[in-house]
Specification:
heterodimer, A: about 500 residues, alpha+beta, Beta Polymerase, domain 2, Cytochrome-c3 Hydrogenase, chain B, 5-stranded mixed β-sheet, 4-stranded antiparallel β-sheet, 16 helices, B: about 250 residues, alpha/beta, Rossmann fold, 5-stranded parallel β-sheet, 10 strands, about 25% helix, globular
């Protein structure tokens, strides 16, 4: 362990004066050393100071020891060495730094805007950038999007094909960019929590939890164990709903309609349990800084538990069909396969990483909230294909339901004596000139928020890293050598967020 | 095969009885607000201060909640000292006219949401929709998508979503319309053959919602297209959306 780089735990804070500040070369050297030791990048971003100087901040996860290593650097004349050629997992982070601050990663092989934010003078208009081209006889390109055929968010996919075979896929996003991070500077504002809930609407609870951990860490405030229980219930319900929806959609993409139609409904049943707690199917307003906006009283807990048992039985009957059906399995198995090495190199997180055999789960590696008291074992599979991503989700729903029943039936009675929703809103005075890291295992994987405050205790920089930011590259890679007709299936097996990426 | 049939029996028939009967919504659901202006203190404007999205407007004469901006967080209800603002369980929130979304008074009756007769004649039996997400956070999109599941079974009303704007009769738009999607939205609209219509779903699409004022987004769909139906919410409940569609296309009164 390099002694010059401090380590903090999930949800801990560190004074900015204690965060080492290296020159550009030492900074890149330290990052390379940590990544070489098997750590992975959680967040890596730039901050443009008033004088136009650019500071770089890196947060690397040491999953084995449950630590985050934090350090910063200053660019030299607006430039810093690119690590992408050695560590592909940083490639989007470096592009983002360039787009947001103008600092140039020297030696980056594919320096192109990430979101086409149209500021700083480095961004061309969206849709006007060059795409990676393959040349040769009978080679052709297929362009898809931004408007897609279904009811989904916009993004552009550019395939380089020879016959049916995809040799390269470039994913170009930014259509959903709403300027959330920019607006967070100088915050928190009254609208901030609501915007955080809408970073990715299907991960309302996940992002809000990460935000609340940041705020509570900076304000030296601890939510009650009962509030943490309610939050964990909400997070697992969100996971169950989305995983179920994905399994249904995967069945739909291979034309297996029974599971598709049942899961469409069962996903809604899970969402309705969240609505039972807070009135909103996506959990808006359920998690708030300091605690939760709603409690789960005894009556609600027993209704929830009873419904969950019923929904879980429906879920098993609906999804069990998949694994016994040879036509489904033929399409799932060995489609879009990624190796464990590739998953590690790309820095994948969540079910997509676990399906490649990587044991990565924030709930286990960096326990937070109620996961400090009650555990969910990480679910992995080795084959890295569509089947693995589907099966990992299936098993995760089962262990989440088991976990939920344990919380609602066994733990709820004992903890409900402490209030879940303390008098709200609590006045939160944030610690000045401080940095905090907060990570949450959302249903797509690691959601990482990093907050840095200024001398007034307002956000100087607030970085949001949605799991999709790590994983879109994995999808592009999974397609290589595959058939273009497998794209919808592969895409669904990752089911990444466009707005969570675009921010 | 036997397993599939067995599962079919276990899963049973699950399509909701709506519109024949009122859907059952959770007790903590927030629907149409009622504003009892008589209870408002003349110098009180706590609701205005508490509202994170500028949906509460207080003048010397009345207090108004603009459903086109409202994200139904309930902050105004919480801070109101005289309980003048309460959210009812009325889920029928859609309205054709933007001004009908500015609610005041204690009535919670839904506003008119029916398409004009000339176009309705064309779409009365069958209508095809094309959805465009223009900066939506995937919550509105997800709860529109859910109308295709067997619980809501949208196609039994002769309404369905299609993959191409050329096959569509109108657009359903979500999101505040990001600068990066503005061109694609306009192109999609142009590709829909006339006569056509535009439905804005969610606070973002109606007014820019919580992102209004950001340089990277426009203030909703109405800045670039004429909106024929507004469906408020953040996101609207699927039954709010379904009710909006059914009233708009004359399937129910």
């Amino acid at each position: 362990m390099s002694p010059s780089v401090p380590a903090i735990r999930n949800g801990q804070r560190i004074a900015l004066t204690e965060v080492p500040r290296f020159g550009a070369d030492v900074f890149a050297g330290s990052l390379a050393e940590l990544l070489g030791q098997g750590l992975r990048v959680c967040a890596y971003f730039g901050y443009r100071g008033a004088q136009g100087d650019v500071e770089l901040y890196a947060v690397c996860a040491d999953d084995r020891n449950g630590l985050f290593r934090v350090f910063s650097g200053v660019t030299a004349g607006g430039r810093f060495p690119s690590l992408t050629p050695r560590f592909p997992q940083v490639h989007l982070f470096e592009r983002e730094i360039w787009e947001q601050t103008g600092a140039v990663p020297d030696g980056h092989p594919w320096l192109k805007p990430v979101r086409f934010i149209g500021t700083g003078g480095v961004s061309p208009a969206i849709g006007e950038a060059e795409f990676f081209r393959m040349h040769g006889e009978e080679v052709h390109q297929v362009a898809v999007g931004p408007v897609h055929a279904g009811i989904i968010e916009p993004g552009h996919f550019r395939f380089q094909c020879h016959g049916e075979t995809v040799h390269h896929l470039e994913i170009s996003l930014g259509y959903q960019h709403r300027g959330i991070e920019e607006r967070l500077c100088g915050g928190p504002h009254p609208v901030t929590p609501y915007q955080i809930e809408a970073v990715a609407g299907d991960s309302t609870i996940g992002h809000m939890l990460a935000y609340c951990q940041c705020i509570e860490s900076l304000a030296s405030y601890a939510a009650t164990p009962y509030a943490e229980l309610v939050r964990a219930v909400a997070l697992e319900l969100e996971r169950c709903a989305n995983h179920t929806g994905d399994l249904g959609a995967l069945a739909g993409d291979v034309g297996f309609l029974p599971t598709m139609s049942y899961c469409g409904r069962i996903r809604g049943d899970f969402l309705n349990q969240t609505a039972l707690v807070c009135g909103n199917r996506f959990g808006r307003g359920l998690v708030v800084p300091g605690g939760t906006g709603y409690d789960i009283d005894e009556r609600r807990a027993s209704t929830l538990a009873e419904s969950l048992r019923r929904i879980s039985a429906d879920f098993l009957s609906a999804t069990g069909l998949l694994w016994n059906n040879s036509s489904v399995m033929d399409r799932f198995e060995s489609t879009g396969a990624l190796s464990e090495k590739m998953a590690v190199d790309c820095g994948l997180v969540g079910p997509a990483a676990r399906a490649c055999g990587c044991i990565r789960d924030v709930r286990q590696d960096h326990p937070y909230g109620f996961y400090r008291f009650a555990h969910i074992p990480a679910v992995t599979h080795e084959s890295g294909d569509v089947f693995a991503r589907a099966h990992v989700r299936w098993r995760e729903v089962r262990s989440s339901v088991e976990f939920l029943l344990r919380l609602l039936v066994e733990d709820n009675g004992g903890l409900a004596v402490s209030p879940a929703c303390p008098d709200y809103p609590i006045q939160m005075n944030l610690k000045r000139d401080t940095l905090t890291v907060s990570a949450v295992e959302g249903w797509r994987g690691e959601i990482c928020h990093v907050a840095i405050t200024d001398a007034e205790g307002r956000f100087k920089r607030y970085k949001i890293v949605d799991p999709s930011f790590h994983n879109w590259f994995g999808l592009a890679y999974a397609l290589r050598g595959g058939q273009i007709s497998d794209f919808p299936l592969c895409n669904k097996s990752f089911n990444l967020s466009y707005c969570g990426f675009d921010l | 095969m036997v397993d599939i049939l067995k599962a079919r029996i276990v899963q049973g028939y699950r399509t909701g009885a709506f519109p024949k009967s009122t859907p059952s919504l959770p007790d903590r659901f927030r629907g149409m607000p009622s504003v009892d202006c008589a209870k408002c203190g003349s110098d009180c404007s706590r609701c205005v201060a508490a509202c994170p999205v500028g949906a509460a407007i207080h003048t010397s004469v009345e207090t108004v909640i603009d459903l086109g901006r409202c994200i139904f967080c309930g902050a105004c209800e919480q801070v109101c000292p005289s309980r003048a603002i309460t959210f009812s369980s009325e889920y029928r929130l859609s309205a054709c006219r933007r001004e009908d979304l500015r609610r005041t008074g204690t009535g919670t009756a839904p506003a008119a949401a029916r398409l004009d007769d000339a176009r309705l004649r064309l779409f009365r039996r069958s209508v095809r929709l094309r959805q465009v997400s223009a900066g939506g956070c995937n919550a509105c999109e997800a709860d529109i998508n859910v109308l295709n599941t067997l619980t809501y079974d949208l196609s039994r009303f002769g309404i369905s979503f299609v993959a191409s704007p050329r096959h569509a009769d109108g657009l359903v738009v979500t999101g505040p319309v990001t600068q990066n999607m503005a061109l694609a939205l306009n192109k999609t609209y142009e590709a829909v053959p006339a006569p056509k219509f535009v439905i804005a779903v969610g606070a973002c699409a109606i007014s820019g919602g919580m992102f209004a004022g950001h340089g990277q987004v426009r203030g909703g769909v109405a800045e670039s297209l004429t909106v024929d139906l507004h469906i408020p919410g953040c996101p609207p409940h699927p039954y709010t959306i379904l009710d909006g569609f059914l009233r708009f296309f004359g399937r129910i009164k």
